[in-house]
Every structure is written in structure tokens, then in C-alpha cells.
């Protein structure tokens, strides 16, 4: 009997024993094409010699030193590198161990900033209904996914949720993408005014929505308008790039493509590429300086913040992306993946939408293309597709999300940046087979 507390208690799992490029290998020798990098983690694939060597090298020098006493060379170098690549205005980096720690830190930093500027009445956080920001209680409160939140609701702080920017379902007939983007952003201003602008602390959003929606990009102009609204009312803008950042969409920060800078950005997943658990919260000089001049102490922290071996992994991942021109791969192979998905599913009666940026792609499954009606949640389609694909040797990320109160199914794809053309074809063929087998047996 296994004593590991697994994610799904009722299901024995294969034992992973190896990884090679885009494949994971289990103890029976079966190979799985990693079409989602776990959940958008393994951006370099498995067994990357450069990152492994960098981590080993750091462990040989020093494995751990508490950040209450020391900084370290890899932490300093990683922070410099992130700031050099980040949207303008982000000046400081707080290294953590994952995505939930990054968003939790961001929410607490926003609150402490206003306490230290003498505006403690700013306490409201606004987020979006179709979002996921992590599973710790603050991050979970910010997320809008009802299924993830439901049983923990009594433990969660109050957060306002506005509509997502979700053109497939919320853009009206005859409305341009730009007009829709402005209308969607307007909800933020309406909510700020409803709460009382002087009580609002921050707005948090994923630039390209991942787990809860399946790679939904924003409408053109949406985030520019969001930035304007935040500035008008002195509200901090937190962008959660935990899934879509670190090159996944074709630029190191996804928000570069929307032409804005946040006040706080969160990254994780692809930063360590699975070689070490690491995330980062980046913040503006103004926020940092306010605290530095004030209390001088961010009232937060976890034992492993700034871990040297994790920072060494992050640094080696960013070097690999730059030295090997992997952002170019993401753009070119992302276009190939998009084309392959459109060829396979463009006319599929149960695929309503194909979307995404770079190597961050999603398809949305519908019972009826004309009405966009989702499948009955009782069918548990997402879980069945995940199992069928896995059986066939494909790791992908099907999920159910909430669509205006209704549950719907999508599949998220986030393969390694090194995926090649034949692997893209194999991925799409296995996904197609799994979807057709499941829908054929279920409906
Ligand atoms: N934010 C986003 C956008 C995510 O997709 C996730 C994880 O899927 C998180 C935060 C939480 O990250 P972690 O699971 O590393 O805590």
C-alpha cells in the first residue's frame, strides 16, 4: 500500500521513473508525450542537462541559508535578470516557492503598502469570476472558480468578482472585439465605484486565463483600459502570470503583448521549469520604497523564500530560454499547434472555440456548437478525456470551468518549448482520438 496522500485518493497512479525531452516514462517503460508540461510547468522538457548542472553546482556551494541573514549569488542574479526583462516600473523581486505563495504575497504586499501610505481603509480586492490564483486561503479567495472555493467559502476573505474578459461567450453579436474589451473593462470601474474608490486596494487578473478557462486571451485594449481605471482610482494592478508567464505565450511576460505594466506581477511554474519549486513576485519601486522608508519590513515570509538552489534553477531556465532562442520556438511552434488544432477541430461538432497564444492553447467543448451549450457536468467529460488521453500516452490538462454559473469543459495545452512538428502532430492526433472516444461513449 502506498502511504503517499495522492491528489485522487481512489486511483492508483503509475510510477514515473524518467524524463527525456517532451516525454515522461513510467516504471513499465511506457512513454507519455507531455502536452501540458504538467500544468504549464515543464517549459524546457525533461532532463535538461544545463539546468540540472546549475542546481547541482549550487548545491555543492551552499544548499540553504536563511534570507533573514543572507542573500545569495543566484538570488541576486535571478532578480537582476527578471527585472531586466520585466515590464517597465517593476524594480524589486521577492522569490518564493510557487504560484500560490507569489499571489498570496502580492495580496499582502498591496495591503501593507496602503497601511504604510496612511490609507488603511483600502482593503477591498477585486478579481474575476473565471480565474484561479492558487489554493492557499488568500489566493483561493481571490480566485473565482466556484468548484474550488465552495467547501472553503466560510474560511475565505471577501473578494469582489467581476466578469472575465471572455469573448467566445460574452462578446455580443455585432460588437467589435475592441468594443467588447472596453465594455468588459468597464465592469472594473463600476465595481470600484460601487465599493467606494477610497476602499479599494487592488485588482488581480491573469493576462491569459489558464486553468479555469483554457488559455483565454484578453480582447484587444482590455488591459490598457484596466490600467487606466486602476490609475484613475489609485488601485494597484496585480497581474498573475504564474501560468501564462515566463515565455509560455511567446514573450517572457504575457502582459508585454497587451502593452501595459502592472504594479505587481506574479510568476512561477515555468520559472523553475519543474527542476526546482520557485516563484517570484515583482513589484514597483514605489511600493518597495514606501515600505523601505516606512516600517522597513514586509510583514510576510516563508522559510524557503530566496532558496539558492531554486534561484539557480530559475536563472538557468531563463538563460536557456535566451541562449537557445526558445521564445522564437514558442511563437513558431505555437502557430503550428494552433494550425494543427484548427485542422483537427475546426469543424468538430463538439469544439466551440480554439484559442490561446504561443504554446498556451485551449479548446472548449460544447454539446451544441450553434447554441454554445456546455455538456451536462454530470457527464464528467474533462476527467474522462484526461484518462483516455493518458491511456493513449498523452498528458494534457482537461478541466471543467464555470461559465456564467454553468459548468463547461475545456482542454488546456502547454507543451515544452522544445516540442517539434512531428510531436505536435502526434499530440493533436492523440487528443482527437481521446475526445472522440469519450464523447462517442458518453453522449
Ligand atoms: N496562479 C495561476 C494563474 C495558476 O494557474 C496557479 C496554478 O495553477 C497558481 C496561481 C498557483 O500556483 P501553485 O500551484 O504553484 O501554488
From TrEMBL:
SUPFAM superfamilies: PLP-dependent transferases (SSF53383)
Pfam family, one: Aminotran_3
Cofactor(s) listed: pyridoxal 5'-phosphate
Keywords noted in UniProt: Aminotransferase, Pyridoxal phosphate, Transferase
A cellular-component GO term for this protein: cytosol
Coiled-coil intervals: none
CDD domains: OAT_like (cd00610)
Cited InterPro entries: Aminotrans_3 (IPR005814), Aminotrans_3_PPA_site (IPR049704), PyrdxlP-dep_Trfase (IPR015424), PyrdxlP-dep_Trfase_major (IPR015421), PyrdxlP-dep_Trfase_small (IPR015422)
Annotated GO MF terms: pyridoxal phosphate binding; transaminase activity
Similarity annotation: Belongs to the class-III pyridoxal-phosphate-dependent aminotransferase family.
Name of this protein: Adenosylmethionine-8-amino-7-oxononanoate aminotransferase
